[in-house]
Amino acid sequence: SGATGTADFFYREALRLGYVARSAFKLIQIQKQHKLIAPGAAVLDLGCAPGAWLQVACQNLGPLEKGGLVVGVDVKQKVKVPSAHCDSRVRTVCTDVMALMKLQARAMSPQERGFSVILSDMCPVVSGITTRDEAISCELGMRALSLAVGKIKVKESADYRETMERFQTSTGPDPDEDGVLRRGGSLVIKFLENEDIPGFNKFCKEKFKKVSLLRPKATRSSSREIYMICEGLR
């Protein structure tokens, strides 16, 4: 079938070009269309295993003298930084993103000034129980969002309030009001398609100048993942 054909194409291309996973092409497409990672950027990659997004992020930092940093976080054992496409600006930390405090996250950033780009390719270990997988996906998304923008405050009258409040617990007991994404920065969150996405979308539109949804070409046809791309934190 055509679906397997494209999957194989991206898999083969990943091998040929030295990427550790075909998911590299998802970030390549996001970067091509939105130019989120500028030379010298400070990038936080949540759920970074096996490291393909670390490779693509590093490739977009520009020459070494531009500086910049890519920090990958994953709950699995400390992810090995791939040798291809990565240089000394890439490092990984083994920690549970659900328990990561903003203070810890900020401490990983250059001069502790926060990050210019936060990427979340985190996904639940799919159980096949759709509602459960969707809920975990939203919890992870909410976690990435609150790390980025800080305390989630929702107006009483907001029509997306219910969505935001449903996942409020995922923001964790983090006393820090401020997020770790710099003003003007960008955030990418992977979701499994579900009915709460419009709520997240509306909330993000108040926080960011531009919000768009993308299903990258390298996504398998059987997959329900979709990426929310938020640009220009207000």
How would you characterize the overall build of this protein?
It is a single chain. The protein has helices at 2-17, 24-34, 52-59, 102-107, 130-149, 161-166, 197-207, and strands at 42-46, 69-74, 90-94, 115-120, 181-192, 208-214, 225-233. α3 links the parallel β1 and β2. It has a single domain (23-233), classed as Rossmann fold (3-Layer(aba) Sandwich). It has 7 helices and 7 strands.
In CATH, the architecture is 3-Layer(aba) Sandwich
Sum up the overall morphology in one term. globular
Number of helices, where a helix is a run of at least 4 consecutive DSSP H or I residues: 7
Category by helix and strand content: alpha/beta
Mean pLDDT: 94
**CATH hierarchy class name:** Alpha Beta
Low-confidence stretches: none
Radius of gyration: 17 Å
Tell me the distance between the termini.
Answer: 45 Å
What is the number of beta strands? Answer: 7
Order of helices and strands: HHEHEEHEHHEHEE
The total tally of domains equals 1
User: How are the strands of the biggest sheet laid out side by side?
Assistant: 3-2-1-4-5-7-6
Q: What is the share of helical residues? A: 25-40%
CATH homologous superfamily heading? Vaccinia Virus protein VP39
